Amino acid sequence: MEPRDETPSTAAEIERSERGRELIAAALGDPRNQAPASLREALEDQRTRAAAAAAPAARRRFGLLRGRMLAAGGAFAAVIVVIVLAVGGGSDGGPSIDRVAAYGRQPATAPAPATVPGTEPAQLNVAVEGLNFPDWQAKFAWRATGRRADRVGGRDVTTVFYRTAKGATLGYAIVAGKPIGGAPAGDDVVVAGETYRVAHGGGRTTVTWTQDGHTCVIDAPSAVPDARLVALASWDNA
């Protein structure tokens, strides 16, 4: 008996045979198709677990970066606030009443000025552009204890400190140059045709007025009566 010929005998059979060989070769040439299904599933599961484990770390890194950016932004904002406070002034671009009054709460940097003999009302031997500070010792028992000089908003500010026998202290400042623009905070008190602005805040009382073309500011503890402070301010504002 002769062996049967397994060779395809028709063109269609030959084409089908060639197509089958191409599919087998393609399957064997792809490493993913060579791996068993169980191994492919294990590899896919491992990739999924790795991605899930990396996600919290990425979120933590993002949180740290965001926190640093917010902190930097807050620091920048704080710097801006400090700069604004440092250069801020009155409506005319000069010093503000609040900044001038604040020096009345700072320590003296120089000795108290002496009394100028024979002056009426009594004056101290320190002046700002011809305007002398008052000597309240004899009239009101407020004795000058020291002074300081500062530069605020491009203006010279001189402050003299006074004290009573009971220990109360106040600062009296005179600003060089024209009066500070804008209306100070507080209420108006009129004495002998002159207006004094009295304001309260933070346990302090501030009296502001204009004398001989200069802004004058008294800053004192709120325990000192308003009437007493206005009397001090108006006494030498004749």
Describe the fold and architecture.
With 238 residues, the chain is α+β, with helices and mostly antiparallel strands. Helices cover 39% and strands 28% of the residues. The protein has helices at residues 11-29, 31-34, 37-87, 97-102, 137-140, 226-235; strands at residues 115-116, 123-128, 131-134, 143-152, 155-163, 169-175, 187-191, 194-201, 204-211, 214-221. The strands form 2 sheets. It has a 7-stranded antiparallel sheet. A 3-stranded antiparallel sheet has the order 1-2-3, with no helix packed on it. A hairpin with a 6-residue loop joins strand 1 (115-116) and strand 2. 22% of the residues are buried. The model is unreliable at 1-8, 23-28, 30-34 and 75-88 (pLDDT under 50).
Characteristics:
single chain, 238 residues, alpha+beta, three-stranded antiparallel beta sheet, 10 strands, disordered N terminus
Using only C-alpha atoms, the radius of gyration works out to 44 Å
Count of helical regions: 6
Residues in helices, as a percent range: 25-40%
DSSP strand tally: 10
Biggest sheet: strands side by side, in what order? 4-5-6-10-9-8-7
General form: elongated
Distance between the termini: 150 Å
Biggest β-sheet strands, sense, barrel = 7 strands, antiparallel
Averaging pLDDT over every residue, what do you get? Answer: 77
User: Which regions are unreliable across 5 or more consecutive residues at pLDDT < 50?
Assistant: 1-8, 23-28, 30-34, 75-88
Give a short synopsis of this structure.
With 238 residues, the protein is of the alpha+beta class.
